Amino acid sequence: MTNALYLQNTYQFSCTAQVTDVKLEDGVVKVALNQTVFHPQGGGQPSDVGSIRLAQSAQLKVNFVSKDQTTGVIWHSGELVDRTHEDLELLIGTEVLCEVNEKERLLAARLHSGGHLIDIAVAREVSNWKPTKGYHFKDGAYVEYEGNFPEQPSKSVLAERIQAHINELTTVGGPVTVLQVAPKEAIGLCAPFPLAEQLQSAESVRLIGMLEGNPMCPCAGTHVQNLASLQGLKVLELKKKGKAIRVRYEFSE
Fold first, then answer.
1. pTM, two decimal places
2. In whole angstroms, what is the distance from residue 137 CA to residue 111 CA?
3. Can you say whether the dihedral through the CA atoms of 196, 200, 201, 206 is positive or negative?
4. What are residue 214's phi and psi, to 5 degrees?
5. Distance (Å, rounded) from C-alpha 197 to C-alpha 225?
6. Of 44, 43, 34, 41, which is closest to residue 62 (Cα–Cα)?
7. Secondary structure class of 144 (helix, strand, coil)
8. Residue of 176, 237, 182 lying closest to 205 (CA atoms)
9. CA angle centred on 221, ends 225 and 217, rounded to 5°
10. In 3D, which of 61, 79, 9, 72 has the Cα closest to residue 37?
11. For 88-132, how does the pLDDT look when each residue is reduced to its tens digit (9 = 90+)?
């Protein structure tokens, strides 16, 4: 299992680590570490990118990070620079320096937190939409809900009202809370939304919360520290996508 430092601090962009495993698959080098600041792709959030500085000035340009859900090992995939693919096993046990692309990390955190804030703004206007999915990528971010559009107001007016709530909340600001709690406590903090069955048997559950009185949400993503960091969040469109209602969004700055 890899120690996931990104869960402890969104704003930690580098760390030292030891190589625990390495492999070559279809020309792509994959490195596992004892700990990492790299967030793997998952939960609707893209993976971090950056570099891992190896011995003798070599480095791995990390373009994709994934987590083995069975073993908990996080794999860093990419291209080797200034080193051949020969004797890769010699890297095991060596100390390396991990460096996440700071700009991409912060954008991913804003987009992910922005999706959670939209949930709150939507709930203030429509009480019967159930959050079901989030896609927090910069090329077309959206959140989806189970439900139907009300007869009134129109989609455009509803979008304006949701935007008004977002503008108010990001102007006033407020802390984004991260908790690690037992499943029994998580059930109460997430109510009225049910806790996923697989999380009910977990050792602990990581929750994200915004604004006192709102349900918290299980999440393993990176997030901003304060809602003020989400200024510029803009709702682009509300539309029906199959049986789901999709709210598309972006940051204007």
1. 0.94
2. 7
3. positive
4. -95, 150
5. 29
6. 41
7. strand
8. 182
9. 80
10. 9
11. 888 999 999 999 999 999 999 999 999 999 999 999 999 899 999
